[in-house]
């Protein structure tokens, strides 16, 4: 994983978490009497992520620290804790595991599986033409559909922030879906505190229904799956400049082959069945989208969801 590595400032920083805020954390610090921080993995509007050693379970974990606004609102923190603990039920081999939710009066984080790898977003950007070919994506899309099928139909959880930067590939080449349930919960909590209500997810990959603040369901994930595939095959999401909100609601995106031509991207042909299924995933009307990820997998001719096998192998 590409990450910013911080030098160890001290191995003897005192405290159990109550004296550490997200601004004061340093490599080598022990927090919550359990985790030893190693290096930062990333940072964004929803907080900072650290690689840490879980000294109790003797394994590396990723710690996603919560924004200060959430920590300081007990009601919102409680709602987030309940929602996050639902994600503890997700035990699929292609979904990043959530281990724990820890906090005190001034700091809090979510402990999750550490994936030693990179995102599909970064892997795409590293390619000479900045795009994948369909043949390169087939195995990963099969694993993604398997994970989504398990979450939608067995755990009854919707991701609501599916995008290439939430799709990890580990050193063995296995795809892992990150932030399942976490991104949604954090977005909802921050929306409550900032009064920007209703929009859970990242704009470029949102369905029209998410934009309008409707209650999310699996068909929003199918839209986001289509938007993610579109970007991985063309280097851009379906709509990325100008009034994106309006375009998502009203405009039909260009066929992927046309978008490649517009961007002067050389590559192999995009098969018609890939064009067709991505176009249908991006339908404005949810009823016109594929009604399950199993249907997406079947029509893309990728390995179909095998939920029981995947859970057994996890």
Structure description:
This protein has twelve helices and nine strands. α2 runs antiparallel to α5 (182-194). It starts with 29 loop residues before the first strand and ends with a helix. The chain has two domains: 30-113, Phosphorylase Kinase, domain 1 (2-Layer Sandwich), CATH 3.30.200.20; 117-313, Transferase(Phosphotransferase), domain 1. With 314 residues, it is of the alpha+beta class. It has a six-stranded antiparallel sheet with strand order 1-2-3-4-6-5, with helices on one face. A three-stranded antiparallel sheet has the order 7-8-9. It is globular and about 55 Å long.
SSE blueprint and pairings:
Blueprint: E1 30-31, E2 35-44, E3 47-54, E4 59-65, H1 68-71, H2 74-86, E5 98-103, E6 108-113, E7 117-119, H3 120-125, H4 134-155, E8 167-170, E9 175-177, H5 182-194, H6 208-211, H7 218-234, H8 244-250, H9 256-262, H10 272-281, H11 293-300, H12 307-313
Antiparallel strand pairs: 1-2, 2-3, 3-4, 4-6, 5-6, 7-8, 8-9
Helix pairs in contact: 2-5, 4-11, 7-10
